[in-house]
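=== RUN LOG ===
request id: a7f3
mode: sequence -> structure
chains: 1
length: 109
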Amino acid sequence: MKSYPINDSSEAIHTVCVTFQIDEYRGYAYYKIGGSTKGWQVIGSYDLVEVLSEAADTGNLEFEQMKLVLNDETFDIELTDKDGNSCQYADEIDWLDKLIVAVEIVKYE
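=== RESULT ===
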């Protein structure tokens, strides 16, 4: 992100990137969130599994190098390594956040 105006209190749209990783396999999920909050309030004050689930339900979730299926109590994820090989993993929904290695605001508009 080129610029992040911290003194702008107007309503804005933040695009957030969530990075998932298992061993050398990675994937990225992007969702948008609106409001007048900034920084950590945008990325740290929410249950990410709930946010991702809601974003998927509303069509506000995009993926790069991954596939993700969320169910009520389980998830299925496919991540990709730098050579294009994939890794699939499924578990109880409570384990999804343990695969998150980064959360970053990547766009502000």
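=== NOTES ===
Strands lie at 12-22, 25-35, 61-64, 66-70, 74-80, 86-92, 100-108.
The chain has one domain: 12-108.
=== END ===
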